[in-house]
Amino acid sequence: MSIQDIYDAVVEFSIDKVVAKVNAEIANKTEVSEILRNGLIAAMDEVGQRYSEGEFFVPEMLMAAKAMKAGLEVLKPLLSQGDSDKKGTIVIGTVKGDLHDIGKNLVAMMMEGAGFEVYDLGVDVDTEKFLATAKEKNADVICMSALLTTTMPSMEVTVKAIREQGLSYKTMVGGAPVSEDFAKKIGADGWSTDAPGAVETARKLTAK
Ligand code: B12
After folding, report:
1. Ligand 1 mean position to 66 CA, how many Å?
2. Tens digit of pLDDT for each residue in 115-161?
3. Contact, 177 vs 152, CB < 8 A?
4. Would the keyword Nucleus turn up in this protein's UniProt record (predicted)?
5. Atom 64, ligand 1: residue with shortest CA distance
6. CATH number of 89-206, picked from 3.40.50.280, 2.60.120.560, 1.20.1250.20, 3.40.50.720
7. Residue 23 C-alpha to ligand 1 middle, in angstroms?
8. Please, how many CA atoms are within 13 Å of residue 185, restricted to the half-sphere of its CB?
9. I need a surface site. Which of 41, 100, 129, 193 has the fewest CB within 10 A?
């Protein structure tokens, strides 16, 4: 039994096996971060690679995503337990035109675990929705996720709208194709390659 079994189960699209193997690793006291990084997330990178090589198509990506999500559900109670001190308020969503939500969900779960109040708007979220929710919930930070290079530009639209309307929300951007350079270029306040980094960045941005 090993982390490799979790990786293999995702690449084989076996929901039952993913759930069983993640539970087994938890029972084994394996670090959650290791299950995530070397098991579930590494497997999704493999799936993306196989898609790029023409070995997998959209249905396979979707089946792997379902298997990964089943694994995340098992981990969720462990990811969202922790700091109960109320931190800032976060509005998070995947940007307009983009339906990828696994990474965004993971960021939301870890933010919750770190004590933030999180409003998750789901996928395909436009600027108006981000801003309307941020106003309604009196948010500190708007977090935007994008997995497609074609949807990244809408992050800039939101950042610009905040500036132009004289609003004070901080912005954080992330997702596989989003780089620190891109974040700086569009004027976002924060960026991170992964969910733990997203929590760290949100802590810094909301530090009073
Ligand atoms: C699963 C998947 C799908 C699933 C998504 C299911 C779901 N519910 O999410 C489905 C099948 C729907 C799908 C569809 C498509 N996909 Co797809 N997909 C993937 C795949 C294999 C995995 C993504 C994933 O979940 N990774 C795991 C998570 C945990 O990682 P993550 O999202 O990067 O998140 C982490 C960090 O980025 C960061 N993070 C994420 N969000 C945020 C936000 C903030 C604020 C911060 C700070 C950090 C942060 O923290 C996260 C946790 O550590 C990727 C390949 C890849 N390696 O990325 C392709 C990939 C993203 N897809 C791709 C493509 C082309 C498509 C389609 C266009 C295919 C098609 N022809 O229809 C469609 C687009 C649909 C749409 N409109 O969105 C391409 C994108 C190419 C590009 N450069 O734009 C990729 C890279 C595959 C490839 N190698 O070509 N896809």
Report:
1. 13
2. 999 999 999 999 999 999 999 999 999 999 999 999 999 999 999 99
3. yes
4. no
5. 148
6. 3.40.50.280
7. 25
8. 9
9. 193
